[in-house]
């Protein structure tokens, strides 16, 4: 059976839902996040992770982390097969970015984009008072792309909705026959990325 991934383009959040019963692990652990502006205000960093699951090798990037080439290259090197991208970026150009990543990494790209209306805010919130109840503040745009850049799920910027998409991981091997940016198409004698995966703790005790 081909893996199935659900995209939620909902009123107050953007989520990529996945449940790996056999591994006892949920997508929650990968994609629960703080707004990136707050995440960037602290110095604690985790390395780029790709998780082996019953659906395939899954990794994620949040919002404009998707515009960080070295981060993407690290995920490709770890064999990512299903690349998850949560965002509030509702610009038309976002789909082009997702297609580029899919082609570049020869992986499936699944992007969940938030849909938000002023009515989703609590009563008496300044946003409601300013815009009324029907103002669309973030217009969504969830999408899915296969390893050759074909759009499997087109963005819908008109409403809150849920998409379903089936992926066939055997497409990845075929797609990498002509391009593998961390394999036969790489040029390590010219370009080499060094990734520091040590944890940066506020206190490090050493006895040597």
TrEMBL record:
One of this protein's Pfam families, by short name? CN_hydrolase
Molecular function (Gene Ontology), one example? nitrilase activity
Question: Matching InterPro entries, A to Z?
Answer: C-N_Hydrolase, C-N_Hydrolase_sf, Nitrilase/CN_hydratase_CS, Nitrilases_CHs
Note the PROSITE patterns from the entry. Answer: CN_HYDROLASE, NITRIL_CHT_2
Which segments constitute the CN hydrolase domain?
1-169
Concerning SUPFAM superfamilies, the annotation shows: Carbon-nitrogen hydrolase
Superkingdom is: Eukaryota
Q: Which family does it belong to?
A: Belongs to the carbon-nitrogen hydrolase superfamily. Nitrilase family.
The molecule here is called CN hydrolase domain-containing protein
Q: What is the lineage of its organism?
A: Eukaryota, Metazoa, Ecdysozoa, Nematoda, Chromadorea
